[in-house]
User: Fold these one by one.
Assistant:
Number 1:
Amino acid sequence: MVEEAYIIDIREKEVFEQGHIVNAINIPWDEIRDRIDEIPKDRPVYIQCRSGQRSYNVVMALQHLGFDNIYNVSGGFMGLSFYEYYNDKTNNRNPIVTQYNFK
């Protein structure tokens, strides 16, 4: 059985609602410490923000708290959107994001 990726989008709720990775969980970066129990320790977790900078900082903080299967989505939602938009259009596939946000 292949386990689905656990993705946490740390952008603010309003920004998350404008477009996010399908099945991503929204835990805004300023709520991480209060919602730490929602983050699984038994499987890989990918942290994502708009550019990759805040998610990198959250990854470092979680590693200091004992999480060892935590990964930063380098390039963030913007990088992923540009890359996946191209793939979606050239391969005619269903998007992996709810809506592209190139702003």
Number 2:
Amino acid sequence: MNPYPRPLRLVTIGVYGFSEAAFFDALRTTGVDTFCDIRWRRGVRGAEYAFANRARLQARLAEFGIRYLHYRELAPPPELRRRQTEADKTEHTAKRKRLALSDAFIAAYRQELLSQLDSRRFVDGLGAEARVVALFCVEREPGACHRSLLAERLQNDLGAVIELVHLTPGQPAA
């Protein structure tokens, strides 16, 4: 595929491990203007992450002038998430401590969701004003979340003009 005609910076971010202040500071510091929520259910368990529940998240992003978009079609459906849960149990790994996705999950996500993705259409659909786009789910580590698979696919399809940064707790925002 030919490189995408305009520069675009993709950042990925999860919520686990971030305080509310640090989460929004990371988004603002990196200049995020478009926030893509790629969760199936737009809620997070635990009072410390209530800020990432849909209504609160959308309101706070609006305060910072960051557009919120939801792409449920890019979220792993329940059956696919169950496969990862089974792999986590086999590995004796808690979801919030997971460092990497299972090979079976990766293969299934790529086949079931990413094989349907038209990367250029996805980015065009973000609008011409999108310059720094966040891909959001919940896991702390990018490699433990489907957001890294989506980001990788977009970067591979659209060329070097797509800069990719993974934001994690405790890391200075770039």
Number 3:
Amino acid sequence: MIKNTKLSFIIALFVTIFSLSNVSAEVGQLNNDQLKQLMAEGVPLIDIRTAGEWKETGIVKGSHLLTFFDERGKYNMDKWLSDLSKITTKNKKFILICRSGNRTGQISQFLDKKLDYKQVNHLQRGIINWIKAGDKVVSVK
């Protein structure tokens, strides 16, 4: 009986260690107040929309403008990641924003699960909800 208990413990320990080694960070899904707090702490906000979208709605002041998908839905992952590396690293906290939160939700999950970024966050419901809530934007020239 004691041998079975020890064996069960050892198996449980290995399962726990194995499962922890495959755990990736959880993508942060932020509301407007959380976004403001993190930006106040100096966490970079990266607006992945197109130039036309930035001009249409404005941007959150202090955003880094780094288009992911172009107007036709195409992207260049290598270039985008290279440009992202000039703003942040895999181990530092950052925030993504788009129009509605759909694109940033997908990109955040990809960065987290496939590329091992540790502290990815995105604004739920995007710039549309930001503006709807009365939060300020600035114009883009």
Number 4:
Amino acid sequence: MYFNRLKQKWNITSNFQLVVIFIVFGITGSMSVRVAKPLLDMLNIYPEAFESIWGGNFLYWIIRILIVFPAYQVLLLFFGAVFFQFRFFWNFEKKILKRIGFKSFFKDD
């Protein structure tokens, strides 16, 4: 029953497509975690640098999330394309970007 609601909300008809979408979300989430460390290393952002700051651990994780979030969005489109679901994930991305303030970049569909 829950899956039927998701299929209706996402405007998909097949269970196979639903499974593929779940796989893409899983791979993207795992990959974004793996990509985070090299990205942070490239930007010279290490947890040790925040140890002397009050709330430094919290600040480090906020910065990490702000850096990983765009990487996740790009990876979601990449893996969506690899699994032939680019249109679904592009529409999904547009919704997310509109909600965080980039509404003016997209015409109403």
